[in-house]
Amino acid sequence: MNTNPAGNGEFGQRTANAGPIVPKTASEALRPEAGTPPPKRSRASRSQIVVFMNFVISSVMLMVLAAGVALYFGKQEFTEPGPSANGDTFLVKANTGVQDIADQLERRGLISDARVFRLGVRAFGNDSALKAGEYEIKPKASMRDIMELLKSGKSVMYSLTIPEGLTVEQALQRIAGEPALSGDMPAKTPPEGSLATDTLRFTRGATRQQMVDKLLADQKKLVDEVWQRRAPDLPLASVDDFVTLASIVEKETGKGDERSRVAAVFLNRLAKGMRLQSDPTIIYGLFGGKGKPADRPIYQSDIQKQTPYNTYVISGLPPTPIANPGRAALEAVANPSKTDDLYFVADGTGGHVFAATLDEHNENVARYRALQKKQADDAAKAAAAAGGTTDKPAADKPADDSDGDGTGSDNGDAGGDAGAAQ
């Protein structure tokens, strides 16, 4: 008889293949039976090659994971704002490698980590793309911003201005004193009047010789261009005479609307064989390219001093220009106003009044002298009220005007304001 109705082989069950029933105590019946043992490892799984390969794969995966983490954080550092709160200029010299650039940036406090910058530049394929120059690094610029700036080549630009009317010597002093330029000055001084009056833009490290060469080339090009467009029948024998007269016009007036009229006066006088009698030629004859000291007036005795440049005592043009003329002065001489004017004198306001006859000129001179006297009287009264004095040299007083009265050479001077020109 089956004493186990469920027939599931529990306690007291007899099966066809079962042996004799072995009674179990209650605790034995409740004790869990042992599970199925795991299969034994194969011989292949226990080999050293498999163990090594597992180690290699695990190591590679860890390295890839570490590289990914490093790449993520490196990219974050490469693109996040930099450590410099104020920014700065940064000079990259020619043939400087990425590693040196990165090290210099880190030392200057412009980036936080030279290694990250170097790897970032290489990751973007810009190893050889960074250009020499001086760069303006903005505050908080990221490494990527700096990389793009150095890649662009947009260097800091400097300016050097050579104003109209400077002599060659004065222009060379400006070039020599520019700290952003490098190299020595030319061994040979260029001829007077041969430098362009211009503002040059350059990057740090440009040479002084390059600046002089460019000014020479630009002036030659300009002079040739304007000379080719000159009016016919000018009383000028050569392009050298053209530049010389333009330099006198440049020094006589700084007003653009009267340059062509001043040029006409001098050209009319040349055509008539009259002396030019230009005050700036007195100054150049006395002081040359250095220029007149600011506190040194033109004295009456200076007007008749014999120098190769003093057009009060020589006929025609001086032997060389007396300054570097600009485009406006060159254009004025090449295409002067159509007038009969032979004289001009200062009007006391920075300009000039012109005259075709000596009588008219003398009237203009008288008005100018009256204005000067009034200004001097007003200054003396003001000085007296302040308790001061106004002294003048006793032996050789400053010239307020050349005579303009027909005495001396020719019939009156052209400028008529000796002592006023600088």
Kindly describe this structure.
The termini are far apart. Residues 401-411 and 418-422 have low confidence and may be disordered. The chain is mainly alpha-helical. A two-stranded antiparallel sheet has the order 1-2. The protein is rod-shaped and about 160 Å long. Helix 8 packs across helix 9. The chain is 40% helix and 7% strand. It contains 12 helices and 6 strands.
Shape: rod-shaped
Low-confidence stretches: 401-411, 418-422
Annotation, overall tally of beta strands: 6
Question: Main sheet, how many strands, which sense, barrel?
Answer: 2 strands, antiparallel
- Helical fraction: 40-55%
- Spell the H/E element sequence: HHEHHEHEHEHHHHHEEH
Q: What oligomeric state do these chains adopt?
A: single chain
What Rg, in angstroms, do the CA atoms define?
Answer: 47 Å
Label the structural class: mainly alpha
**What percent of residues are in strands?**
5-15%
What is the tally of helical segments? 12
Which strand order does the major sheet show?
1-2
